[in-house]
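## Example record

The block below lists the input lines for one assembly entry, exactly as stored, with component labels intact.
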Amino acid sequence: MKPLIKDGRIVADEWSLLSHEALDDIDLTPAGPRQIVPLAHYRTHAEVLRTQGHRIAILLGPDDEPDAVAPYLADIALVAIHFPSFTDGRGYSTARLLRVRFNFSAEIRAVGDILRDQLYFLHRCGFDAFSLRADQDVNAALSAFDDYAWAPDFGALPRTAPKGSLPLRDPAADK
Amino acid sequence: MYRYNETDQRLVDDRVRQFRDQMQRHLDGKLSEDDFRPLRLQNGLYLQRHAPMLRVAIPYGTLSSMQLRMLAHIARTWDRGYGHFTTRSNIQFNWVRFADVPDILALLATVQMHAIQTSGNCIRNITTDQFAGVARDEILDPRPYCEIVRQWSALAPEFQFLPRKFKIAIAGGEEDRAAVRFHDIGAKACRSDQGEPGFEIFVGGGLGRTPMVGHCIKPFLPRAELLNYFEAILRVYNRYGRRDNKYKARIKILVKDLSVEGFAREVDAEWRHTRGAGSLIPESTFATMEAFFAPPAYADARATDLAFVAPRAENRPFARWVERNVAPHRHPGYGIVTLSLKKTGVPPGDATADQMDRVAELAERFSAGEIRVSHEQNLILPNVPLRDLYALWEIARRSGLATPNIGLLTDVVCCPGGDFCALANAKSLPVAAAIQARFDDLDYLFDLGPLELNISGCVNACGHHHIGHIGILGVDKNNEEWYQVTLGGSEGKHSRLGRVIGPSFAASDIPDVIERILQVYLRERLAEECFIDTLDRIGLTPFKLAVYGERHEAAH
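Predicted structure tokens for the full assembly:
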């Protein structure tokens, strides 16, 4: 099982990511209990998968709107956000919006081209789980959360807070 | 000046540690060039034509003497004894060694400086008016707001990987000396009808490949909403800006695609969620920030002091320098001194380590220990008693820093061009040198009056050629360097882009071309009319005719 960084620790990843191809052949889907499904397929396949006994989560692409996933947030265990390249920064905004505008408090997972050197910033935007690119050293990556001392607690809702002598603005106001 | 608190200091120290580790992993082969490139760029480290180049931020163009001495030390110890001040309040070291950069950054951190986000697709150094805090026409001192925006934008987690680079300028005066209409976001200080302080917000300006004058999307933004509104703009851009083509990825293209009104609507929709009570910048923050930028204790100085009046009457070179290089100061008996980095034969914006040390010393002795860097690539001493000008001038002169040419033809704004830059299509420095050499006669220069000449070595337009009264752009034609001339560009209140006058020229022709253009002006001008006004009045045609002659006639 591929390792996952969750809440600053290495854990076993119990979820499998269903590709579009796999979903085209939904009846043949191997029976792992936990499936992450692209948003576009969620409506079509969620019920089938649930009746097969799966737990479902949603995968967002970089151009998926957070509004589109909003109606399902209460029903899912996690949202995964895909980074086609680590230099494509759209997912940072998506995560932030899910946290502060939609008050999504369950797992937000970064998947795709996820490297050790972006973990700190991803975490600050609300990601709390990271499925790193295959070549990354997962153990070494754990120290990335300590790259900067001004980090908030892991539990705190991340927000683009001003630093230095500026006080943190109240995340609760962003609704 | 702003002084770091513990959090600020810790942040730059941590940044150095992080980058040192990244550099080490890269050198050990554990971090590939593709994965490392965006990281090193966000720390100001480029790989240029001949050598690595390090770009260091001078936030809103403000330096202390101590900081400038450190820049001199770095130039002397880690480079070849000089640095290049850029058009965006940065300094570039052209000959650093790649693996030395973490050590250089560590030194910078000891004087509260850094190279964070001086390159890369992120929010770049914040720039402002070089006369901030001392200009007579000031509506708001922009520096407290610049510092607030600096803190917000430095390492802003959500905006580390934007579609493209993002530049913000803030101006505080009636006259815009920060080119706010040529930035991704430009904020110009203003007051509401009720007198509350705030900003007029422009977006989508910029030079480069697709030059555009920025559009106003918010005529009045209360200052407490500055970060909420900027965040809304950045979020809309981060989510919807194009990422498929880097030449169409700047915010100006998004603004054009959505229309100005459409873009403003998107921003307002986003801002609606964040604006208001809980996320306003508290008044106390403004007060705290303003305290950092309190004016120095001014002495009881007088404009009529004999130490100033006498040499000005008797010494023509000094009087000329005062005329061009000393601007009116808000406080009576004081002046704002511009030390020219445009001496003939020296690349515009370059200063040697010895010159930097000398400027640091002059600032300490005459200007409360503070220096500014202008986007015209000169250094400014903002608080000089007029009675000290003569003493200052004599020292500056011996150091090659008192060329009396501010705002004149030879105050050329110029990028490093093909001599250094990997992007350049053509050299720019020899063209600047040839123009400075040809028009070196001070009587002639003073007679010509205010004239802005800008040179860029490629379409990226670091020399801001589009906004020069005369602009020169280096282009590549079949591997040969050619130069295109534009006329009529302007920044400030009457911002607009210059127009190309016709086919391009060989480098060796440029001084002649400029001379023919100037001859038309001298022939056609009315009394007291400066170049740009004559050009506006008579149009491009007489200039084209003078430059191209029959060739122009035939073409039409």
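Chain B has a mean pLDDT of 95. Chain B has four domains: 6-109, 127-289, 306-398, 413-555.
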